[in-house]
Amino acid sequence: MNTASYRPQLSAAGLAATRTAEVMDEYGELREVQLTGERPLTLYVDKREVVTLMTLGGQPELLALGYLRNQGFVRDLAAIESVQVDWDVDSVAITTRAGINDWEEKLSTRTVTTGCGQGTVFGRMMDHLDGLQVTPPVISQGRLYALLTALADHNAIYRQAGAVHACALCRDDQVLSFVEDVGRHNAADAIAGHMWLEDIDGQDKIFYTTGRLTSEMVIKVAQMGVPILLSRSGVTQMGLDIARRIGVVLIARAKGRHFLVYNGASHVELDARPPERPGVHLEAAQ
User: Residue 250 CB: number of other CB atoms within 10 A?
Assistant: First the structure.
């Protein structure tokens, strides 16, 4: 075999990167925005489940190949016979020519980083989704603005060094707990641990994050019993789908006096609309 020019058999299952959704802005007006796509993609190597990656799905075959190489599972491309993606079951089947030695050892030493794209626990979280349901209270626009002002007084590590995400547990316009970490999921888990340890009820709380509102973030907040999720960043397609399913209010792109309500507009009281509407300008979702 000429390994220099070898290519495994690859499916061509790339997905569109975005889709549209209708949201309500701070003036109570409806508009269409673009949602970032998000899908779980479970990698199977020779029928063995390896990991579930959250992805846009634009180039899933290349994602699977790159993951295997970067994790050190496969060193030689010629060892891979095929990479076949099937979005009907959100999976990619990778077949090798002769199997892979020492699978148990390789998997036991695997390190999943604090980044945003790898969710090894995603499947287990989804298994319990039907048991999650929240009942959001009404939040006023004035209280929301006051909370955003209070949150601006935090972010100490970010101001000093950058390169962090932050999460906060809030009630009305008060910040009860604020955590910064290199990944938003780490910060969210720390607050969940605090709530568990101190027996804090989430029903009357608001959860704030600087990061994207992905499916995993929505599920984690619902597991804490918190019904309102607030972010200065954007929302993914699956994050919105799950929020609609379990009732979480999603407020995103929140900065200054601007925000967009992606889910639960009836739970936002518009009592402090800005006096006049400037030219519409939406930053790209982060």
Answer: 25
